[in-house]
């Protein structure tokens, strides 16, 4: 939940900005969804970043490849 709005935050939406960032991003999600893993696969397919999703810890690590 977002502390400001009280709405559920879709963390898969953070993947693309994290892939385009200049440094590695790491964050935790409440649930690893199919949408999150699909987005991660597409970002890797386009060669933007290496995305690691740890389903046991609900943790996402995005390492930009700087090819954009």
Question: What descriptors fit this protein?
Answer:
68 residues; alpha+beta; 3-stranded antiparallel beta sheet; 2 helices; 25% helix; RNA3'_phos_cyclase_dom_sf
Write the layout of secondary structure elements.
Elements: H1 15-19, E1 25-28, H2 34-45, E2 49-54, E3 59-64
Antiparallel strand pairs: 1-3, 2-3
Describe this entry's structure for a reader.
InterPro entries: RNA3'_phos_cyclase_dom_sf (IPR037136). The chain is α+β, with helices and mostly antiparallel strands. It has one domain (11-64). The protein is built from 2 helices and 3 strands, in the order αβαββ. It has helices at residues 15-19, 34-45, and strands at residues 25-28, 49-54, 59-64. Strands 1-3-2 form a 3-stranded antiparallel β-sheet. β2 and β3 (59-64) form a beta hairpin. The radius of gyration is 12 Å and the shape is globular.
Summarize it.
The chain is of the alpha+beta class and 68 residues long. 25% of the residues lie in helices and 24% in strands.
pLDDT < 50 runs, ≥5 residues: none
Number of beta-strand segments: 3
The topology string of helices and strands comes to HEHEE
Q: Which outline best applies?
A: globular
Rounded to an integer in angstroms, the radius of gyration calculated over CA atoms is: 12 Å
Count of separate DSSP helical elements: 2
Strand order of the largest sheet: 1-3-2
Mean pLDDT reading: 87
Binned, the helix content reads: 25-40%
The major pleated sheet works out as: 3 strands, antiparallel
Class by alpha and beta content: alpha+beta
The percent range for strand residues is 15-25%
Q: For the terminal residues, how far apart are their CA atoms?
A: 32 Å
Number of domains: 1
InterPro entries: RNA3'_phos_cyclase_dom_sf
